[in-house]
Amino acid sequence: MLNSDSNNPNSTHRIVKPSSDFYTTFSEVEILEIIDALEVRREIPLKYSYKGKGGKIWDNFYQKYIIPTWYRTSNVEIELLNNNFQYLNGDNLVGSKVNIIDVGAGNSYPIKKYIRQLQKLGKINQYIALDISEALLDVSQKNFKNWFPKINYINDTLDIENSCIPKTLLENEPNQNQETINIILHLGVTIGNHHNRSRVFNNFSKSMKKNDLLVLTNEIGSNSKWNGEARGGCDYHAENIYKWITSAIAIKSEDCQLVRKYDSVRDSVVANIKFLHNYTIIFNIQGIDKNIEFSADDNITIWRHHKFEIPQLQQELAQAGLELIRYSTNKYSSHIMAICQLAHIP
Ligand SMILES: C[S@@+](CC[C@H](N)C(=O)[O-])C[C@H]1O[C@@H](n2cnc3c(N)ncnc32)[C@H](O)[C@@H]1O
Fold first, then answer.
1. What angle do CA 240, 243, 244 make, to 5 degrees?
2. Architecture of domain 76-221+309-342 in CATH?
């Protein structure tokens, strides 16, 4: 709903209310977190952009730009899982089986070949897909059950920035004298997208026990040396999130611009909604209106990615009681797969 102010094309001050799509996509708790993030740091956390229509946006992006085809044979996650298979197949414990817990599973496509390899060795106990987005869990379930009808599949919603992995999902029934270890995956450079990485690392660490592994992928290198070219997620994914979020909040396309830049405060590359007019967004939460004001030229960050240098990754892991036990890079040396364990306490 727009007020008379915003109906006047000459007015430089617009007043808008988010659409019903916004209120049906996000829970009250999530809307409160979005309002807080907008007020405190002018950001809509990227994690929320995978929910609702955002699930389809990610799956489409994946199908169009990431899935291997005859003309695009390489895929970072598939290549790195394959290269590290000898460390990720449970062979470090004699006779062991593995549970794969895929946090931020998306459409589960990246793990298809890896699970097939585990299945051939008789190593897979079960696959657990966890994600903040119900929409993507639906896609994951459909894909996985189609590929692996005989493997036990569980899924659940989880925001790893706010919660640990529930203990009930991680505690294994003693299985015919075989030990089962948990391999927790966090793929798709998702660790570099979080607002609060230290909380994410701490939640992983608190979820793990001795011998469990945490496996993540991320881009490596220097963020500040970004050449200004939008590629991969920063290009298509950010653009489609921008279209969806601006329409869900009812910001008119002619009143804003999509701007990508280097954010020196958070040392990451970001995509922002830049306002061309003064704006008031009126959120309604628990029956109470909450106004947030923006001036022309203000920005809202809707997408971010932080590349790691290896020593910094080791430092962030150590602060959460985790240890990098092995890493390798893809053939272009642009991405890393990091395999971590709970730090050894003497
Ligand atoms: C970049 S995609 C990667 C998907 C998949 N792992 C892959 O490699 O293709 C990020 C995924 O993590 C999920 N996600 C983002 N933030 C999350 C959070 N805080 N907790 C749980 N899932 C999250 C998104 O919904 C999305 O499915």
1. 90
2. 3-Layer(aba) Sandwich (3.40)
Decide if pLDDT at 314 tops 50. yes
From-to residues of CATH 3.40.50.150 in the chain: 76-221+309-342
Protein residue with least CA distance to atom 15, ligand 1: 47
List of E strands, the chain: 13-16, 97-103, 124-131, 152-157, 180-186, 213-219, 256-263, 268-275, 278-285, 288-294, 299-305, 322-329, 335-342
Q: Is the pLDDT of residue 67 over 90?
A: no
Q: Tell me which DSSP letter residue 330 carries.
A: -
The residue whose CA has the least distance to atom 16 of ligand 1 is: 47
> How many Å lie between the centroid of ligand 1 and the Cα of residue 39?
24
For 41-53, the pLDDT digits (tens) are 999 999 999 999 9
Query: Which DSSP letter does residue 36 get?
Result: H
> What is the pLDDT confidence band of residue 232, given thresholds at 50, 70 and 90?
confident
Please work out whether the CB of residue 158 comes within 6 Å of at least one atom of ligand 1.
Answer: yes
| Confidence (pLDDT) at 141 | 98
Report phi then psi at 250, rounded to 5: 70, 30
Q: Are 256 and 245 in contact (CB under 8 A)?
A: no
Question: Chain-centre distance of CA 95, in angstroms?
Answer: 33
CA 333 to chain centroid, in Å, comes to: 22
What percent of the chain stands above pLDDT 70?
93
pTM of this structure: 0.94
pLDDT at residue 176, as a whole number:
53
**Helices and strands: H and E segment counts in the chain:** 11, 13
